[in-house]
Specification:
Largest sheet: 6 strands, mixed
Shape: globular
Number of strands: 10
Oligomer: single chain
Strand order of the largest sheet: 6-7-8-3-9-10
Strand content: 25-35%
Helix content: 25-40%
Length: 237
């Protein structure tokens, strides 16, 4: 479980997050929707341990991992993070990029897991290419594969489908849903596309100006009647 308690974040005079409290359970998908600058990415970075909160705390698996005074390192949180940018290592092939997080496992297991993940994302023919030889959509899928292949118990995705064509988007969303159902993964999915957020089902959260203004269950494929729900409809749990 991921628990966010009274979380706020300032960057100088800019308030990026305002008193956020959430509980995100294993085996669930939470889609966070809102305009650019609403605090979505900042919230993910705080959960991942890439930023310290100004106020509040974060608990992962019952352990306190973030306060204004102390942070547990990102690699000790059991969290996988797919960033907005692919951020691939340019000197490594596609295979090497994806296999990197599996260092220490038996070679046969690494090969099998990488092959399965590349096939699921439709890029199994790109194993020997370098990032500079990939299209934007291909690079995004390699970035997804690099994180998903490690089977993280908690998965944070920040606009992961940028540059990916419509047909493959649907397959990737299906894969993300399967991770939550079959592996019990806690999935937090950030997007500015309301339809994309609603497609995942689960819980849908709307953020504006650093605050949660609305949160509720959203059956898969059902788009809320209003893109800007009233603040009075917010339910934190």
């Amino acid at each position: 479980m991921i628990k966010v308690d009274g979380l706020s974040k300032r960057f100088g005079e800019v308030i990026a997050l305002r008193d956020i409290s959430l509980e995100l359970l294993p085996g669930t998908v939470t889609a966070i929707h809102g305009p650019s600058g609403s605090g979505k990415t900042t919230l993910l970075r705080l959960i991942a341990g890439l930023e310290a909160p100004t106020t509040g705390a974060i608990y992962i698996g019952g352990a306190l991992v973030s306060t204004p005074a102390a942070l547990t390192a990102p690699h000790h949180r059991g969290v996988g993070f797919v960033f907005q940018e692919a951020a691939l290592w340019p000197h490594m092939t596609v295979y090497q990029n994806v296999a990197f997080g599996l260092l220490g496992l038996p070679r046969h297991e690494v090969k099998a897991r990488v092959a399965e993940m590349l096939a699921q994302l439709g890029i199994d023919d790109l194993t020997r290419r370098y990032p500079g030889e990939l299209s934007g959509g291909q690079a995004r899928r390699v970035s997804l594969a690099r994180t998903l292949v490690t089977h993280p118990p908690r998965l944070l995705l920040d606009e992961p489908l940028t540059h990916i064509h419509h047909e493959m988007r649907s397959e990737i969303l299906n894969l993300i849903e399967q991770l939550a159902v079959n592996r019990g993964t806690t999935v937090v999915y950030v997007t500015h596309e309301l339809a994309e957020a609603a497609r995942l089902g689960g819980r849908l959260i709307r953020m504006e100006e650093g605050a949660i203004v609305w949160a509720d269950a959203c059956p898969a494929g059902e788009i809320p009647a209003s893109d800007t729900p009233n603040r009075e409809s917010f339910r934190a749990d």
